[in-house]
């Protein structure tokens, strides 16, 4: 692998944006869960270690979902202990109480549950109604909080749904309130099929803050299916959001969208944030090198524009 020729954007700050953004890195979980290839545990552990070495402070490590549902992450019990010494936050996904038990047994300090804003996705993904899914998460959240474990609530399909189409803002607000009221510390608003545009982002965030949802509890999770992820991120930053989900190298397509383009690439995000003079603590050159290394293991080039621009990777 050639070392990337490191370029950085000129930092020109803009008004009204947070001074610092915390990146919630999802490549090892959301990314690898949606890749066709199953990566060996040792490679995943090395990936998480390299990500931690770039300065990322929150690295979602794996999922304690039943192994038959997500065979790519069936090694959670082996992976977590292999990385738990790292001096970073290592949240894991827990789909239900059984998953929580498995995570707690390994000393996990941060968990995430995965809710849906729409009935059709709740039915497709969890075979439950939205309210039945919330009822399933209630004991998970309560038991995690009783152990002082941080809980993130993912909310998918916040901007559009492949079956339902448009998703009313009020519907998203209702589920967000329910997750916060049950004890979630943080909510990640997911644009699972990548259809959001900046005005929609602004409208949803305004409605949420109008419903007494603190902006400090919000993260955004954009997909770049239609090339809107960074525009949407900027709109969210302008509303005061300071936690942004991204996936190193743009790992992970979306199984519910036709396009292979999925998660916002962390490198593309870091490029924009550095250009805005916003502190992320991330070394972009190291991050690009990590994604080039991972792409070689997956046997396909990274879809990230910034990885391509800063590396000699063939596309
Ligand atoms: Mg995603």
Automatic annotation (TrEMBL):
Keywords attached to this entry: Lyase, Metal-binding
GO process annotations (BP): ketone body biosynthetic process; L-leucine catabolic process
Gene3D superfamilies linked: Aldolase class I
Positions of the Pyruvate carboxyltransferase domain: 21-288
Name of this protein: Hydroxymethylglutaryl-CoA lyase
CDD domains named among the record's database cross-references: DRE_TIM_HMGL (cd07938)
Keyword hit for Lyase: yes
Residues annotated as signal peptide: none
Taxonomic source organism: Streptomyces toyocaensis
Family classification: Belongs to the HMG-CoA lyase family.
The keyword Metal-binding is assigned to this record: yes
MF-aspect GO terms: hydroxymethylglutaryl-CoA lyase activity; metal ion binding
């Amino acid at each position: 692998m050639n070392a990337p020729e490191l370029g950085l954007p000129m930092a020109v700050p803009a008004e009204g944006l947070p001074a610092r953004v915390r990146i919630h890195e999802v490549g090892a979980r959301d990314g690898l869960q949606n890749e066709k290839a199953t990566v060996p545990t040792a490679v995943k552990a090395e990936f998480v270690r390299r990500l931690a070495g770039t300065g990322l402070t929150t690295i979602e490590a794996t999922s304690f979902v039943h192994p038959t549902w997500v065979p790519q992450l069936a090694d959670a019990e082996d992976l977590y202990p292999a990385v738990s010494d790292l001096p970073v936050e290592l949240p894991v996904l827990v789909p239900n109480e059984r998953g929580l038990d498995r995570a707690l047994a390994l000393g996990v300090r941060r968990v995430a549950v995965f809710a849906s804003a729409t009935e059709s996705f709740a039915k497709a993904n969890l075979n439950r109604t939205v309210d039945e899914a919330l009822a399933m998460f209630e004991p998970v959240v309560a038991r995690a909080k009783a152990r002082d474990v941080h809980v993130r609530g993912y909310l998918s399909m916040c901007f559009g749904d492949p079956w339902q189409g448009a998703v009313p803002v009020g519907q998203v607000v209702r589920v967000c309130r329910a997750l916060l009221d049950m004890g979630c510390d943080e909510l990640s608003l997911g644009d699972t099929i990548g259809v959001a545009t900046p005005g929609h982002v602004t409208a949803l965030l305004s409605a949420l803050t109008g419903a007494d949802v603190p902006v400090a509890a919000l993260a955004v999770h954009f997909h770049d299916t239609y090339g809107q992820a960074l525009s949407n991120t900027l709109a969210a930053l302008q509303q005061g959001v300071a936690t942004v989900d991204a996936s190193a190298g743009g790992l992970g397509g979306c199984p519910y969208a036709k396009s292979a383009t999925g998660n916002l690439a962390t490198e593309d995000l870091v490029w924009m944030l550095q250009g805005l003079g916003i502190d992320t603590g991330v070394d972009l050159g190291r991050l690009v090198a990590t994604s080039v290394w991972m792409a070689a293991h997956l046997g396909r080039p990274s879809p990230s524009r910034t990885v391509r621009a800063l590396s000699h990777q063939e596309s």
